[in-house]
Amino acid sequence: MQYRIVPKNGDKLSVLGFGCMRLPLKGEAIDEERAIKQIRLAIDGGVNYMDSAPPYHGGESEKVLGKALQDGYRKKVKVATKLTPFMLNKPEDMQKMLEGQLQKLQTGHIDYYLLHGLDAGVWKKLQHFGALKFLEKAQNEGKIINPCFSFHGSLSTFKEIIAANDWIMCQIQYNYLDEQLQAGTEGLKFAAANKLAVVVMEPLRGGGLTDKLPLEAKKHFDAAPVKRTPAEWGLHWIWNHPEVTLALSGMNEERQVLENIQTAKTALPNSLTTDELIIIKNASDTYRRLLKINCTGCQYCMPCINGVNIPRNFQAYNDLYLSGNEQQARGMYEWFLMGGITGVRADAALCKGCMQCTTKCPQNINIPEKLTDVAKELTPNGNA
Predict the structure, then answer these.
(1) Tell me: the pLDDT tens digits for 53-64?
(2) Residue 97 — pLDDT band, cuts 50, 70, 90?
(3) How far is CA 218 from CA 119, 167, 284, in A?
(4) What is the spatial distance between Cα 219 and Cα 282, in angstroms, rounded to a whole number?
(5) What pTM did the predictor assign?
(6) Which of 231, 164, 239, 142 shows the shortest CA–CA distance to 198?
(7) How far is CA 227 from CA 53, 139, 230, 265, 276, in A?
């Protein structure tokens, strides 16, 4: 296993982290026996960073992780979980959430504690709740060790948050399709320049950059002299960046665990050749050409006065056609955009056609027209 150093505390973390958002299922519930075996298989293979959050699997992910880390496994890993803003109604709920997490995880402390899913609005809410003072208090009490945050907003907000606190780590969405999405490459380099460790989520776009890759894009990898699976190409691209500390993988098959551990041994910083980087770019360009909506996620169209999260709606629409998993794409739309877990809608059906966003879009997308397409395709039963 390859390890990289957290700049501010010296921790040696495996470049492959285990994300507990997509644990194996038995029916609608987590297959606990299999999930525990997979988590321990990863740890036995050198993975030492485990990531969870309160909403994952309806709140059961942290419990299963806690069970998996019994029998001596807790001391082998760093545990990360999150303070989830949409589950907080008042400042006192922060302490209540943390105490519940310690109990579920069966641990006396959480190694990396992240403010979850920050953007400008969520950041403002947590500031109002006094989240930074809460983190400091929890640190002083030894209940959390390292204050961190995960991010889904604009680059300017990302830089603002980094300047607001002495963070140890940040977590961003990043892969070879999302170089300009949210924090993007500039944010990655900015965080590293400020001595933050960087955790990458969605390095394979929820499986979209694995064998589910569109065939036309996959042909570029198949023709390469070096034979790698699409997943290996995607992870090599991530770990080629020396600024990346680790990448989270939502592994739910034993085969995935073993394959990713093997890839993590050889995907070293700056190890891809110029020709290999061109191959990845060609695959990426082909993929983008197949996108239904050529949205880069630049966020110039935001905020929407009607509450639509325009980039995430477009991402969901593209995923519907490119992911190879229609059920998952529709489920994520209901979960994240129709208020399934947040209680707040941000879906395409809220668009009123005001046209304010169209003048701001550098890609010249007719945003209201495309949002109408999204609503027709993704609103359950056509009920907008």
Answers:
(1) 998 888 899 999
(2) very high
(3) 33, 38, 10
(4) 10
(5) 0.80
(6) 239
(7) 36, 47, 10, 16, 11
HEC sequence for 117-145: EECHHHHHHHHHHCHHHHHHHHHHCCCEE
Q: Give the sign of the dihedral formed by CA 139, CA 145, CA 146, CA 150.
A: negative
Pick the closest to residue 172 from 184, 161, 160, 180 (CA basis).
Answer: 184
Q: At 172, is the pLDDT very low, low, confident or very high (cuts 50, 70, 90)?
A: very high
Nearest to 238 by CA among 229, 228, 248, 223: 248
Q: Which helix (H) or strand (E) holds 284?
A: helix 274-290
Structure token pair of residue 143:
């209940």
- Please say whether the structural domain 3-281 has been given the CATH code 2.60.120.20: no
What 3-state class would DSSP assign to 248? strand
- The span from the CA of 293 to the CA of 291, in Å, is 5
**114 vs 13, 28, 309, CA distance in Å?**
16, 27, 23
Q: Is the peptide bond before 303 cis (omega within 30 degrees of 0)?
A: yes
Per-residue pLDDT tens over the stretch 242-288 = 999 999 998 888 999 999 999 999 999 999 999 999 999 999 998 88
Closest CA to 231 of 265, 206, 254: 206
Q: Report domain extents, the chain.
A: 3-281, 310-382
Q: Across 244-317, where does the E strand assignment appear?
A: 246-249
Say how far apart CA 384 and CA 181 lie, in whole Å.
Answer: 27
Burial 129-161 (b: 16+ CB within 10 A, else e): bebeebbeebeeeebbbbbbbbbbbbbebbbeb
**How far is Cα 82 from Cα 151, in angstroms, rounded to an integer?**
12
Amino acid letter, residue 78: K
Alpha-carbon span 214 to 208, nearest angstrom: 9
Residue 374 DSSP SS3? helix
